[in-house]
Specification:
Layout (H helix, E strand, L loop, with lengths): L4 E7 L9 E8 L2 E10 L2 H19 L7 H19 L8 E2 L1 E7 L2 E7 L3 E6 L2 E4 L6 H7 L5 H6 L19 E6 L5 E5 L1 H4 L4 H10 L2 H14 L6 E7 L15 H5 L3 E2 L25 H22 L3
Antiparallel strand pairs: 1-11, 2-3, 3-4, 3-5, 5-6, 6-9, 7-8, 7-10, 9-12, 10-11
Helix pairs in contact: 1-2, 6-7
Length: about 300
């Protein structure tokens, strides 16, 4: 495989009258951008929110030059602003959407995430959940108050604590990592992750190309009841990856291939040297440090003067 492979699939499921999910993607000269979103707030408003999220992100990021982590964050902020303004209308109260974005800037990947849709990475036979759910039950699991099994069946499992459009400012998780040949990504709404166990996801991703994997995953979710809208994006990176430098730096772990949460703004974007090494931090001496240094010099001078005195 010497090129990027990707497949998108969405289905209303078997219990919902309308599909409030949205999924989109586009290959680019430097890699690609892929998005899944799960709208909320009613049949019309949920559909509008998810569509606005996908359209805004793709329009902002699908261009000739690869985006930086800051660009990715700004795309989500722009989508959040558009949805939040729409949600101020009385007929749109409660409108919002989850949104999970994968940017492949070969040989690197960036992931942005809001809500309880998910991004997974299949690497060398192991399936890793890259994102953390922004939901009531997920927070209780992280606190040790619920087990993962209890969370899957809890009556509040669909209560999310963060969504695009819910607040004036977006709260976005950002991750980065260096790719390895054959890495496969799965973006999905909870219509899939809430129905199928991870071992089923891994088996399908490991044994089928993206187009067939997407079809099979959606079909399996519907075979298990199809309780919700289900959307997936399956993306497999090439075996031969380019070696490039980027005008942004990644933490050392991410540059070696480990998924790492990014804090935008900590590393200057103008850094263009050695993406595989963390940027050196230049310390600034404060007045307390200067005072301590001065006192140290005075004490040393006093000791030296006393030692030089003749009895």
């Amino acid at each position: 495989m010497d090129r990027l492979e990707a497949a998108l699939k969405t289905h209303p499921g078997l219990k919902r009258p309308k599909n409030e999910d949205a999924v989109g993607g586009e290959a680019t000269p430097w890699g690609g951008v892929y998005v899944v979103a799960d709208g909320m707030g009613g049949h019309r408003t949920g559909e509008v929110a998810s569509r606005l999220a996908v359209e805004t992100v793709l329009a902002r990021l699908s261009r000739e030059e690869p985006p930086s982590p800051k660009d990715l964050l700004e795309a989500l902020e722009e989508a959040n602003g558009r949805i939040h303004r729409e949600a101020q209308r009385p007929e749109n109260r409660g409108m919002g959407t989850t949104c999970t974005v994968l940017v492949l800037d070969l040989p690197y990947a960036l992931v942005a995430h809001v809500g309880d849709s998910r991004a997974y990475l299949l690497r060398e036979g192991n399936l890793l959940q890259l994102t953390e759910d922004h939901s009531w039950v997920a927070e209780r699991v992280r606190q040790g108050l619920l087990s993962p099994e209890e969370a899957r069946t809890h009556r509040w499992r669909n209560v999310i604590t963060n969504a695009l459009g819910s607040f004036p400012q977006a709260r976005v998780d950002l991750l980065g990592l260096k790719l390895r040949p054959g890495d496969t990504f799965l973006l999905c709404t909870d219509g899939l992750s809430g129905v199928l166990e991870e071992r089923a996801l891994k088996e399908v991703l490991a044994h089928f190309p993206p187009a067939e994997a997407a079809e099979r995953l959606v079909a399996l979710a519907n075979e298990w009841g199809g309780p919700d809208n289900v959307s997936v994006a399956v993306v497999r990176v090439p075996e031969a990856l380019p070696e490039r430098q980027r005008p942004y730096a990644l933490p050392l772990e991410a540059a070696k291939g480990e998924p790492v949460r990014l804090q935008v703004g900590e590393v200057p974007e103008e850094l263009t040297t050695q993406i595989l090494e963390p940027a050196p931090k230049r310390g600034r001496v404060g007045w307390r440090d200067a005072l301590l240094i001065l006192l140290w010099v005075v004490v040393v001078a006093y000791i030296l003067l006393n030692s030089l005195r003749t009895p």
